[in-house]
């Protein structure tokens, strides 16, 4: 049997630091977040570790530790983003050793926090050939609004003075992106502007789709994501 394509499934944030991998793996939490399970049922190999500060990686009884994790790195010239991206690469290193996994067909899927990671991860690790970001595309230029703000994991000193999300996407030219956004979600703000700027720059490996809705990942949107991963990772068997 041909090895199956791999998808890294990154969990959401939602301020629930006691919850991470268990949600996307369908063990507890929101049933609309079980994309690691649903992709596995479609014939993919999925991997879904806890991000730093979540679930088994939380050392403060479910309290927010991510700003400590960030500040303790910033003072020595490092960032939490670099640590999180490195851990994604380590997870892909591991899954590449599994005989049932095809290391040449690697994808990424995430909602909210996971959706933000889905934009950054392919620029860090060029093994990622296809990535879907759901409700996590808000650019830095929109994040100065107090209703949005900056997530600790994506604070990079000086980055927003000259760059934004379009630069990250453009850099990962080995990856096909699908950016899913909604019209009533603060974490989807600026989605149309992202598409406009990508088009102006002639970036053809990403597309943005805006649907009616809030900060959610309903079955219809998940199906769109799964179909995109199937098409772009070439030959994933749908059961």
UniProtKB/TrEMBL annotation:
The keyword Lyase does not apply. Its EC number is 3.1.-.-. It comes from the Bacteria. Keywords: Hydrolase. The keyword Hydrolase applies. GO terms for molecular function: hydrolase activity. Belongs to the AB hydrolase superfamily. This is Dienelactone hydrolase family protein. It comes from Promicromonospora vindobonensis.
């Amino acid at each position: 049997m041909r090895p199956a394509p791999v998808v890294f499934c990154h969990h959401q944030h939602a301020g629930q630091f006691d919850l991470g991998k268990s949600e996307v793996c369908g063990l507890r939490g929101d049933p609309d977040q079980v994309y690691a399970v649903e992709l596995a049922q479609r014939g993919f190999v999925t991997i879904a570790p806890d991000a730093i500060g979540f679930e088994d990686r939380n050392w403060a009884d479910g309290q927010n530790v991510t700003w400590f994790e960030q500040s303790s790195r910033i003072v020595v010239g490092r960032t939490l983003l670099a640590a999180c991206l490195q851990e994604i690469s380590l997870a892909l290193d591991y899954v590449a050793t599994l005989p049932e996994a095809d290391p040449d067909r690697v994808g990424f899927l995430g909602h909210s926090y996971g959706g933000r990671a889905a934009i950054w991860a392919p620029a860090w690790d060029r093994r990622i050939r296809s990535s879907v970001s759901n409700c996590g595309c808000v650019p830095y230029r929109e994040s100065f609004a107090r209703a949005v703000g900056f997530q600790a994991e994506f604070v990079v000193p000086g980055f927003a003075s000259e760059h934004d999300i379009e630069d990250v996407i453009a850099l990962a030219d080995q990856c096909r992106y699908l950016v899913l956004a909604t019209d009533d979600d603060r974490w989807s703000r600026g989605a149309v502007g992202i598409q406009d700027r990508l088009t102006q720059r002639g970036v053809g490996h990403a597309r943005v789709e805006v649907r009616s809705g809030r900060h959610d990942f309903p079955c219809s949107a998940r199906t769109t994501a799964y179909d995109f991963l199937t098409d772009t990772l070439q030959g994933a068997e749908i059961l």
